[in-house]
Amino acid sequence: MAATAETEPGKLIILNGGSSAGKTSLALAFQDLADECWMHLGIDLFWMAQPPEQLDLARVRPEYYTWDSVVDDDGLEWFTVHPGPLLDRAMYARYHAIRTYLDNGMNVIADDVIWKREWLIDALQIFQGYAVWMVGVHVSDEEGARREQERGNRYPGWNRGSARAAHADAEYDFELDTTATPVPALARQLYQRYQSCREPTAFNRLHKRFLS
């Protein structure tokens, strides 16, 4: 049942940033802090729905994605994912799934890594007319690399390359730095910033920039 006069559409917060920026932890803490119900529908939920073999960098097929790793002259490694047509379709479907929640009056907080401009444009088209808060989530390069190493399941430079891709075209209503602030404090900041920003504008600015 879609949203009606009795059921207002849900609101959407998109936490966009690189891998290991702390987006998922922030989203989960926000859920427990907020007075309203917020459903967490992050990119990992849909990424991990791919066939297990396609999550293995040594075996993944190009229709899902390809990847490369480049070491700069300064010795920093940059890992980049290049989505293929199947992953593009999965991410397009992801945004439609989120919109279904919104249409049924459910608020959604979604942590995202916008790997390519086309994903951003899909989101701009699919969520046009909804209340969307765009939030940039950042971490220092050193701390991001430390977290990646601690996790043990990330290729070196994944945090660096994904952050560059995620923020390349984005604009935000506000931004958070997770480098040194504990998650509970960050969640309070997010909630306070959300409450004080009753009319978000970044999404409409992006829509005008790319689709007008």
UniProtKB/TrEMBL annotation:
Active site, per annotation: 44
Pfam families: CPT (PF07931)
Molecular function via GO: ATP binding; transferase activity
Matches recorded under Gene3D superfamilies: P-loop containing nucleotide triphosphate hydrolases (3.40.50.300)
Residues where ATP binds: 17-24
InterPro entries: CPT (IPR012853), P-loop_NTPase (IPR027417)
Name of this chain's protein: O-phosphotransferase
Source species of the chain: Mycobacterium simiae (Mycobacterium habana)
Lineage, highest ranks first: Bacteria, Bacillati, Actinomycetota, Actinomycetes, Mycobacteriales
